[in-house]
Design brief:
seven-stranded mixed sheet; binds coenzyme A; 4 helices; Aminopeptidase; alpha+beta; globular; single chain
Length: 156
Amino acid sequence: MNNTDNYLLPLGYVIRQAKPSDMWLICLFIIRASLDASQLKWHQFWVIEYDGRLVAFGQLRNFEFAQELGSLFVVPTHRNQGLGTFLIQHLIAQSTQPLYLKCLKNKLGSFYAKKGFIPISYEELPVSLKSKFRLSQLRKTLLKAFVLFMKYEHPV
Ligand SMILES: CC(C)(COP(=O)(O)OP(=O)(O)OC[C@H]1O[C@@H](n2cnc3c(N)ncnc32)[C@H](O)[C@@H]1OP(=O)(O)O)[C@@H](O)C(=O)NCCC(=O)NCCS
């Protein structure tokens, strides 16, 4: 979506597209962190390395007329230095369709809001994502679980 990719990675970190051999580690981190394990396709992932080791990753899931920013993860010892922010900026810049995400952690809502995502209702989601997120919406309405749907808005 041609967003300006204006964030810099801290010294020593490099970003690259994932390779098939990254997936066992990515899957392990995703399972451990209880993140959404759908569409774990290596070619949709970007990873950040430090000293030749994978320390962060995120992906763009593809749907009809939409993409979902997902699987965002930074290894705990490398957090709070902007890697998550950099990955979000990078995935925004790579996206080619309207971009959405689902957030299940209350404190992350404001984190994503600072990156340009705005809260939207379930009804505002495209049809393709409504079917994916139907269960989450049920958890939200029936169990009052924290579920926030967000859409990326280009800065004007
Ligand atoms: C959420 C997550 C990806 C954030 O990764 P991160 O690399 O720590 O994120 P950042 O460093 O970009 O931003 C986190 C905080 O670090 C601080 N920060 C950002 N850039 C910084 C920098 N250059 N130097 C120092 N601190 C910085 C900020 O306080 C920021 O919070 P804010 O933007 O809300 O003010 C990470 O905590 C994680 O992997 N969590 C577990 C998995 C998860 O919950 N994923 C999201 C699923 S929806």
